[in-house]
Design a protein that fits this description.
disordered C terminus; 6-stranded mixed sheet; Rossmann fold; single chain
Length: about 200
């Protein structure tokens, strides 16, 4: 079973600025979310012999914080687990982007503008890297920390468009479970956030 986790809130998530593959760190809230995820794993007795992460700092730090209590020998970082590359749109405010390219997040089957990576290209690399990970771990529980757009596009691909991109949000540090039967990947659950209530309660209190 693959536990696919979106990174904790980043500094630019809080500002409403599109990151793409720019290397932005976690906010204070994001660090709380990642630590709470680790607490949830510990309470539920969920631990991992294998931990993989996007090589971008917001994902890698989430992986470290969420597994701090586990005897994890190393975290394998991969460029293939990065967020979608948004080209010239990276670094801009989402409000401004929506005026320029209203369908920037779900522009399937059309030529890309602004130097963006296509959704189909992102889906292909996500399926590729997760199949590689599944074969390497041989079905053992593995944690994979990546990005919201990448997870949404993956879910869309694996469900033949029944869920995912354009049909729901992937929350920071949410868990999406993906099964591997030795041949193909399938979605078990999407956007689980049982640990975030305690973060909200602490933050609001």
């Amino acid at each position: 079973m693959l536990y696919i986790v979106r990174h904790g809130e980043s500094e630019w998530n809080a500002l409403g600025r599109l990151q793409g593959q720019m290397d932005i760190g976690l906010s204070a809230e994001g660090r709380k979310q990642a630590a709470a995820l680790g607490g949830y794993f510990e309470r539920e007795g969920i631990s991992f012999d294998y931990v993989f992460s996007s090589d971008l700092d917001r994902a890698f730090q989430t992986a470290k914080l969420a597994t701090a209590w586990m005897p994890v020998e190393s975290i394998t970082a991969s460029r293939l687990l990065r967020e979608r590359f948004y080209g010239e749109l990276q670094g801009q405010l989402l409000t401004d982007i929506l005026e320029q390219v209203p369908n920037y997040a779900d522009n399937f089957g059309i030529p890309m503008t602004h130097g963006m990576e296509s959704i189909e290209g992102m889906q292909e690399r996500m399926v590729k890297v997760l199949m590689m990970i599944s074969k390497e771990t041989n079905g053992a529980p593995a944690l994979v920390v990546t990005h919201g757009g990448a997870i949404n596009a993956l879910v869309h691909k694996l469900t033949d468009g029944q869920a995912g991109t354009g049909q729901g949000k992937i929350d920071n540090t949410s868990i999406t479970r993906i099964a591997w039967d030795g041949k193909k990947l399938s979605v078990v659950s999407v956007n689980e956030t049982p640990h975030l209530k305690e973060v909200r309660d602490t933050f609001e209190g």
